[in-house]
C-alpha cells in the first residue's frame, strides 16, 4: 500500500473544515491528529476522522504519526508553535497570513532552516484559473509593459463578526483589520502579478467598527517593481458588501476581473472573439464572499494542498514558500506604517 503523509491540524475553526475535506480527497495524505483547546471538539472531530486528538499543540507535534502540521490558529499565535513544531522535525503549512509582522516571520523561517524542515503558506487564490491566466498573460508580455494594477475590495462584516471573537480586529492576533485579514489575498495577487511592490502611501480608519483596534477601511497608492502604479482599497464597512474588482492594464492590453470572473479583456491585435481566457466557472469567491466569511468551495485549497503533499513526499519545498508568503505581510505592515507616519514607505529586501 502506498504510504500516506501523516498530517496534524492545529485549530478547529471554520477554515479547518476546508482543510479536512480537501485532505480526505488527496490519496497521498491522511489526517493523523487534530488539536484544539476544547477537548469535546477535539474528541468529536477525531472520532469522525479516526485519528488522534490533543488539546496541547506540543503533544500533536511530538506524535510520531504526524509528519507535517497545518496551522489554522489566529495569525499572531503561530511563531511559538512553529518554533516547537520545527524543532520536533515536522514540516509546517500555515493559513494566511503566515504571521503578523515580517520580523516574526523571519524568526519562523530561520528556525525552519535550522531544523531542515519546510514551511509553506496557503495562498490558494494563486490556483484560480482566472488569476493564473492573468499571471501567464503578464509574464508572456501579452499586455505589454504594465501601467496600473488596482484592487477594489468593498466588503461588509456585521458588528458581531468582531464582537463575538476575541482575536478578530486585534493587532496582536489578527495583525490588522481589512487589509491583513480580508484583503491579504488580493494584495498578494497584485504584488505577484507585478514582481513585488516598491513603495506604498496609505490611509486607514475605522468607519463602522469603532470598537476594534485595527482598521476597517484603508486606501493605498502604490508603486510596483514592474514600474506600474496602483490603488488598493479595502473595507469591511460597505453595506451590504459589493463585488471585488482587480484590474490590470498595460501598454498593449489589460483585463478587468470581478469576483474572480473576467468581465473584460482586450489585447492589441487580437479580437475579443479570439482572445482565449477561462470562462465563467463554479468557483465563486473563495476567500469568503463580500458579505460573510464562510467558504463554500474547497477546489483551490485542494489544488494547493495536493501540490504541497506531493512536494513534501518528494522532499521539495512546497508552494507557497515562507519567503514568498512574507511579501504580502511586509506590504501590509508597510501600509500601516505609512498611515501612522503620514508618508510614503519603501518596501524592504524581499520585494526586490
Question: What does this protein look like?
Answer:
34% of the residues lie in helices and 23% in strands. The chain is of the alpha/beta class and 352 residues long. The termini are far apart. Mean pLDDT is 94; it is low at 280-288.
The radius of gyration is: 20 Å
Give the class-level CATH name of the largest domain: Alpha Beta
The CATH homologous superfamily name of the largest domain equals: Dihydrodipicolinate Reductase, domain 2
- What is the CATH topology descriptor of the largest domain? Dihydrodipicolinate Reductase, domain 2
Q: Which shape, going by the Cα principal axes?
A: globular
Helix content: 25-40%
Give the N-to-C terminal Cα separation.
46 Å
How many strands in all? 14
Helical segment tally? 11
Helix-strand category: alpha/beta
Largest sheet: 8 strands, mixed
Order of helices and strands: EHEHEHEHEHEHEHHHEEEEEEHHE
With strands numbered from the N-terminus, the spatial order across the biggest sheet is 13-12-11-7-10-9-8-14
Quaternary structure classification: single chain
Mean pLDDT: 94
Amino acid at each position: 500500500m502506498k504510504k500516506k503523509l501523516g498530517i496534524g491540524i492545529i485549530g478547529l475553526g471554520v477554515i479547518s473544515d476546508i482543510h479536512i475535506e480537501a485532505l480526505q480527497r488527496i490519496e497521498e495524505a491522511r489526517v493523523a491528529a487534530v488539536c484544539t483547546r476544547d477537548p469535546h471538539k477535539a474528541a468529536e472531530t477525531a472520532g469522525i476522522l479516526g485519528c488522534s486528538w490533543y488539546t496541547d499543540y506540543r503533544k500533536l507535534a511530538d506524535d510520531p504519526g504526524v509528519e507535517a502540521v497545518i496551522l489554522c490558529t489566529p495569525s499572531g499565535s503561530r511563531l511559538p508553535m512553529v518554533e516547537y513544531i520545527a524543532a520536533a522535525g515536522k514540516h509546517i503549512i500555515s493559513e494566511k497570513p503566515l504571521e503578523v509582522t515580517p520580523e516574526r516571520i523571519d524568526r519562523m523561517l530561520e528556525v525552519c532552516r535550522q531544523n531542515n524542515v519546510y514551511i509553506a503558506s496557503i495562498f490558494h487564490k494563486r490556483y484560480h484559473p482566472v488569476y493564473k491566466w492573468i499571471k501567464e498573460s503578464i509574464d508572456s508580455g501579452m499586455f505589454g509593459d504594465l501601467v496600473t494594477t488596482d484592487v477594489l475590495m468593498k466588503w461588509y462584516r456585521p458588528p458581531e463578526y468582531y464582537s463575538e471573537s476575541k482575536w478578530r480586529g486585534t493587532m496582536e492576533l489578527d495583525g490588522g483589520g481589512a487589509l491583513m485579514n480580508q484583503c491579504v489575498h488580493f494584495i498578494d495577487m497584485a504584488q505577484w502579478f507585478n514582481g513585488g511592490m516598491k513603495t506604498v502611501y496609505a490611509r486607514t480608519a475605522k468607519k463602522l467598527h469603532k470598537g476594534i483596534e485595527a482598521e476597517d477601511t484603508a486606501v493605498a497608492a502604490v508603486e510596483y517593481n514592474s514600474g506600474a502604479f496602483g490603488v488598493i482599497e479595502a473595507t469591511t464597512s460597505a453595506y451590504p458588501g459589493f463585488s471585488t474588482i482587480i484590474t490590470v492594464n498595460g501598454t498593449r492590453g489589460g483585463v478587468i476581473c470581478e469576483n474572480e470572473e473576467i468581465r473584460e479583456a482586450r489585447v492589441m491585435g487580437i479580437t475579443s472573439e479570439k482572445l482565449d481566457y477561462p470562462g465563467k466557472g463554479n468557483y465563486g469567491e473563495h476567500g469568503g464572499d463580500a458579505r460573510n466569511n464562510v467558504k463554500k468551495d474547497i477546489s483551490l485549497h485542494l489544488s494547493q494542498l495536493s501540490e504541497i503533499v506531493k512536494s513534501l513526499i518528494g522532499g521539495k519545498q512546497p508552494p507557497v514558500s515562507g519567503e514568498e508568503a512574507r511579501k504580502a505581510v511586509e506590504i501590509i505592515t508597510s501600509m500601516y506604517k505609512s498611515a501612522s507616519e503620514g508618508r510614503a514607505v519603501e518596501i524592504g529586501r524581499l520585494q526586490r
